[in-house]
Specification:
The protein is an alpha/beta fold. Strands 1, 2, 3, 4, 5, 6 and 7 form a seven-stranded mixed sheet that branches. The longest helix has 20 residues. It is globular, with a radius of gyration of 15 Å.
């Protein structure tokens, strides 16, 4: 059985909804175990035991969210040299464009020698005022469908040995 690890962080719920949608899509594949872990709870052993990864996080102040960056900082060196070639995908919930958070995860994935299997999904909430930025997010069904489809395709690829 293959394992897909989805690591996420969210303060206002957007990235969490995206991660849960990916989990729901991936869970349709009976021969793939899907693990959904908050960034603060994930450890090096979780990474080492997974066959593929989806990273879901918000972009805060034009950067990857602090707890998600902390996840990568805590585990970068302990797993370096042990994840080469494993597939990964990225999902970002952003107030504007999300490109800096995507770029940060891509650089980390390159260092770990992970293999991106899809273009990053970026959902822009257009939250630009302090009130809108701090408000709980509700991700539109069409965006959640994209996340669900990514999870389903990822799990199917793992099960088929494509990834």
């Amino acid at each position: 059985m293959k394992t897909l690890l989805i690591v996420w962080h969210s303060r206002t719920g957007g990235a969490r909804q995206m991660a849960e949608a990916a989990r729901d899509g991936a869970s349709a594949e009976p021969d793939v175990m899907v693990r959904l872990l908050e960034a603060e709870a994930a450890c090096a052993a979780d990474l080492l035991s997974a066959d593929g990864f989806i990273f879901a996080a918000p972009e805060n102040l034009a950067s990857l969210s602090g707890p998600m960056k902390d996840f990568f900082d805590r585990h970068y060196y302990p797993v370096l040299g042990h994840l080469e070639g494993r597939p990964c995908a990225t999902m970002i919930c952003a107030g504007s464009d999300g490109s800096n958070a995507v770029r940060q995860i891509a650089r980390i994935a390159t260092g770990w020698r992970l293999r991106p299997i899809a273009e990053p999904i970026v959902v822009c909430t257009q939250a630009q005022t302090p009130e809108a930025i701090l408000a709980p997010k509700t991700i539109a069904p069409a965006h959640l469908d994209r996340c669900r489809d990514l999870g389903a395709a990822f799990a199917a690829g793992l099960e088929a040995g494509i990834f």
